Structure formats: C-alpha cells, structure tokens
Amino acid sequence: MRNMIDINRTPIWIISFALLAFLLSPARSFGQGKEVTSYINRYKQNEVSTGYYEEYEMRPGNERPFVKNFHSIARKPFPYSSTAASIRNRSLLADSHRGIKFYDNRRCEGCHINETKDIHTTRANLTCRQCHGPEPIAGIDHYYSPLNPIRRHAYVCAKCHQGAGASFAGYVVHEPPAGSSTAKADFPALYYSYWFMMALLVGTLAFFIPHTILTGLREMFKRKKG
Amino acid sequence: MQTVRIKRFNILDRSFHFFLILTFLTQTATGFSRLFFSTVWGKNLTAVFGGYDASILIHKWVGIFMICGFIFHTLYLLTRIDFHNLWASLFGPDSLIPTVRDAKHLWQRILWFFGIGSQPEIGRWAYWEKFDYWAVYWGMPLLAVTGVMLMYPVMASRYVPGWTLNIAVLLHRAEAILAVSYIFIVHFFVGHLRPSSFPMNEAMFAGSIPMEELEEEKPVWLNQLKAEGKFETVKANPPSLLYKIIYFIFGYAALGFGVYLLINGIINSRYIPLH
C-alpha cells in the first residue's frame, strides 16, 4: 500500500521532531476537570476557571456559624448515648459510611431526610453526589474531602457560583429549621432572626386586623351628625 | 350645588403611590411564583412570567427600579423639611412623624370602638396612616439590602460572612410576607371595605376629598387650614368622569389581583417552608 507510512522511508528528522514535541508538550491528564482527576488537578482547574485566587481564599473558613464542637461533645461525661460520639466523628472519616449494613441497597434520603429539604435540593435539583462526591463519600471534616472548609469553595461551590470564596462557602446549605431548638444551638443568628420576624408579623397582624375590623363595625353603627 | 373639594395629595404623591402599586404587585407575583414553586399554583404563576429564571429576572429589575424610586422619594422627603424651623417641621401637625398625640388618639379610638367616649379629633395624618407610611419606608430598605445581597451573593460574601446569606433569605421572605399580608388585608380593608370608604377611598387617585368627608374624618386639619388662612388655596376641582372610571377599574384590578395572590398564598402556605 502506497499511502501507508513506511517507517523506514520516513526521514529521521520527522520522527525526532514528533518525539520531541511529545516530550515537550504539557503532561496528559485525560479526565481534566472531571470528578475522576486528582485533587491537585481539580483545585488548579477551579482556580483557573473562576479566575479568583486571592489570599483570603486560602484561609480556612473560620466564619462558620456552627458552634458545635465534635470533640467536646465526645468528651462530655454523659454523651447522648454510648455510640453518639462515634457517629459524630464520622465527619472525620475518609469513608463516612464505613461499616453501615446493607449500605449498597440504601439511598441517601433514607437516613438524611432533613438534608433534602434545602433550596439546593428542592429548587436547583442538585443530587447529593454533585457536592459530596462519588463513593467512598468522605466525611466533610476529613482532610482530603472536597467539602472540607479549606477547599470547599473552590472544589464544590465554584462549580456553579463562579468566583466563590471561603466566606461564600460559609453559607449553610443544610440549614436547620429556623425556629427549632437545633437552630438555637447551632445557628443562633438564624433562630433569633426567625423569631424576631415572626413576632413582628404576628404582632402587627394581631393588632391591626382586629383594629381594622372594629373600625369597620363601629362605623356601621355610627350616628349621623346633625 | 357643587360640593367643595379639598386637595390632599399632589400629583407627585399620587405618582409615588401609583408606582408603588405597580412595582409592589409585580414583586409579589414574581416573588410568590418562586416562593411557591414547589406547588402547582406556583409553577403556573412562574409560567406567566416565562418560567423560574425569567421571573427572578423581572423580580431583580423591578427591585432595582423600586430602589431608585425609594431614593427619589427620600430626596423628595428632604425637600419637604423646613430646615430653618426644624423642630416645628418635624413634629408639627403636618409631619408624618409619630408623636405622643398619636398614642392618645389610638387609646381614644380603642375606647370609642367599645362605645366609650367620642372619636379622636384627628389632624392631617391619622396614626394608622403614619403606620402605613413608615411600615413601607422601613420595609423597603430591608428588602433592598437583603435583595441586593442575594442578587450578588458571591460579591456580598466578600464583605460579610457567607452565613449572613442564610439570614438574608429569611429576612427577605419574612418581610415580604409581612408586607403582603398587611397591604392585602389591612390596607385594602381600610381603603375599600370600611363603611366610610366603601366602595373605594378615592383620595389617593383623585387627589382631593369632599368637604363633608374632611369634616368627619379630619376636623383638626380643617381648623388648622382655616386658622392658617390656607383654606382657599387647597380647594380642588372634582375629578373628571373619564378619570374616575379609569382609576376605579385600575383600583379594583389591583385589589382583585392582590386578593387573588393572598388567598392562593394562604391556601398553598402549608406546602412550603417559611424560611
């Protein structure tokens, strides 16, 4: 066949050039930007794609409103139960669901039902894995977890919110019900804002609706002047 | 004989009110369409505005429009203050600032509801009118600040911690629900349904009210006008029939639309979380 490249007849400089070009070209990384790439690659990709790389982004998010401290709970003389501490400490595991029976046949919302009620899930139709990543799902406080606050903004938030910084990642996606005692313990600002607005709403309407109705009734029975 | 009419609102006051009707109803409809998006009614309402994303686009632009209107109104408000005579201007009978007088009027009126004593002698602005005004004046900046934060969440989070966005969502919704329920229940009742206003209190559209109504509702203001010698200058012509037809249709359309949103909101409220 005439068209086939005959390696013996191809000039040596073409082969050398091709080899040199291959060696000097940037390293191959076939899944760049996808879930399967290494953490380092994904971080760099996110920096490049968002265009933001500032000093404050490197700071771990210390503005988290949660006051919960896993270690202190575990160390309390009377924890909620004998297993409570170990359950809480799952947030530090590389595989947070390690050892759960029949794990393959379960669905996330089977246990995490309250985590499916937020805006990201109900409005933007995000699935759990789009933020929490593929199996094995690391606990969010595990050092290499994409949701660890030191890199959450770049690895997860910036996928949709271009330019997201560490502070932005402090938004509480799975916020507790605003009026609940959970919120009072974990997110007091949300709890008190909720009850302040609730008091304002109920107070205003509880005063003005009877006031208005009584005005109407009283005017009906008013004597005409003169 | 033609009844004498007294001017209450100038053309700019009425324009502000008209502007607020249009923008407030648009914001309510687009906002509710998203708040209730998980219900069938909410989905249908977003469809009117072109879907979930289009309705927030309208909501944002009208919101910016409202902020401009608020700033313009504040500038107008500053021109109404007499800085040479500040105290009298701020706490005088023509001012909208609540005073001890209003607290007395409120108490007198509550007694009057139950047949004790007579109606309070109200001046230019009744205490519930002052409340109406300041409720909007307080609510608009709150909605504007939280709204702008949610419009530019990434930028906002560079100046405030990210968790304030959770608070902003809560405040924006709660204040909106408060405003909507107050306007569509209390304000509409006062403007349309109470016997002295029925079928419609025309002051905000016609700009003037008949003399008899003034004698009945605001005797102190009438005396004040006479004492200041301004009585002749505030006489106004009655609105033309065509204009009257137009504002009756418009007013009732706005009323109907508001009540429609309110009732459907109440019906669907159990399917959505408040925060």
Overview of this protein structure:
- The complex is a heterodimer of chains A (about 230) and B (about 280).
- Chain A is an all-alpha fold and about 230 residues long.
- Chain A has a domain at about 180-225.
- In chain A, about 40% of the residues lie in helices and about 0% in strands.
- Chain A has eleven helices and no strands.
- Chain A is elongated, with a radius of gyration of 29 Å.
- With about 280 residues, chain B is mainly α.
- Chain B has one domain (about 5-270): Up-down Bundle (Fumarate Reductase Cytochrome B subunit), CATH 1.20.950.20.
- Chain B is built from twelve helices and three strands, in the order E-H-H-H-H-H-H-H-H-H-E-H-H-E-H.
- A three-stranded antiparallel beta sheet of chain B has the order 2-1-3.
- In chain B, helix 3 packs across helix 6 (about 125-150) and helix 6 (about 125-150) packs antiparallel against helix 8.
- The interface between A and B is large, with 49 and 42 residues.
* Alpha-beta classification of chain B: mainly alpha
Bulk shape of chain A: elongated
Overall structural class of chain A, as computed from helix and strand content, comes to mainly alpha
Q: Which term fits the overall shape of chain B?
A: globular
State the distance separating the first and last CA atoms of chain B. Answer: 58 Å
The CATH superfamily of chain B is known as Transmembrane di-heme cytochromes, Chain C
What is the helical fraction of chain A, as a range of percent? Answer: 40-55%
Low-confidence stretches of chain B: none
Main sheet of chain B, how many strands, which sense, barrel?
3 strands, antiparallel
The percentage of residues in β strands of chain B lies in: under 5%
Oligomer state equals heterodimer
Rg on CA atoms of chain A, Å: 29 Å
> How do the strands of the widest beta sheet of chain B line up side by side?
2-1-3
Q: What's the total count of β strands of chain B?
A: 3
Question: Distance between the terminal alpha carbons of chain A, to the nearest Å?
Answer: 120 Å
Low-pLDDT ranges of chain A: 54-75
As a percent range, the share of helical residues of chain B equals 55-70%
Radius of gyration of chain B: 21 Å
| Arithmetic mean of pLDDT of chain A | 76
